[in-house]
UniProtKB/TrEMBL annotation:
InterPro entries: Tscrpt_reg_PadR_N (IPR005149), WH-like_DNA-bd_sf (IPR036388), WH_DNA-bd_sf (IPR036390). One of its GO terms (molecular function) is DNA binding. This is DNA-binding PadR family transcriptional regulator. Pfam families: PadR. The keyword DNA-binding applies. Residues 28-96 form the Transcription regulator PadR N-terminal domain. Keywords: DNA-binding. The keyword Transferase does not apply.
């Protein structure tokens, strides 16, 4: 899959556009093979399956649906102002021919969704005492340090890849933090 390389979460999706047009069309067909859906439902389904990491815009979804309809891979049923899209026989055949790719992509979306849920739990402090924290080199009671390390890791991933200037800025921040830790300086404490 061309849009399925590098990027955030170790080999997940790249930042920016997550799929090229053909790959997105295939995933839409796979979702339509599960059940007929409106364009908005497709957007929400992809958002849910990726834990909020991938939220395609209407400007991406609707042209893809129009293309699928024009090529006979999907059909549309108008109900008021909404359009309900269904997969056609030829669309189903396309999904079946690419089943391994579809399954791998949907599994990756699911894995990213799980990682996003984990990040949300860490930000909410729910994982501060889990097994991962117990294995920390800082000891069993290092929940605050563990949480801060997770936040730092997440912040660095969200900024990557960075420009030379941004890299220098981040390095300076980390160097100041390391120096403060070594000196034992704290702000606001006696």
């Amino acid at each position: 899959m061309r849009g399925f390389k590098g990027g955030m979460f170790g080999g997940g999706f790249r930042t920016g556009r997550k799929f090229d047009a053909a790959d997105l069309q295939l995933i839409i067909l796979a979702l339509l093979s599960e059940q007929p859906r409106h364009g908005y439902e497709l957007i929400k389904t992809l958002e849910e399956r990726s834990g909020g990491f991938y939220v395609p815009s209407p400007g991406v979804i609707y042209p893809a649906l129009t293309y699928l309809e024009e090529t006979g891979l999907a059909e549309v049923e108008a109900s008021g102002t909404k359009k309900l899209y269904r997969i056609t026989e030829s669309g189903q055949k396309r999904v079946e021919e690419n089943q391994a790719l579809v399954e791998a992509t949907l599994a990756k979306l699911s894995a990213i969704g799980e990682k996003m849920a984990h990040v949300r739990r860490v930000f909410g402090g729910e994982d501060a005492g889990d097994d991962e924290g117990r294995d920390s080199p800082f000891g069993r009671d290092a929940g605050d340090v563990h949480l801060a390390r997770q936040l730092l890791r997440s912040a660095l991933r969200s900024k990557y890849p960075w420009s030379k200037a941004e890299g220098a800025r981040i390095a300076a921040i980390l160097e100041r933090a390391a120096a403060d830790i070594i000196r034992g300086e704290t702000k606001g404490e006696d």
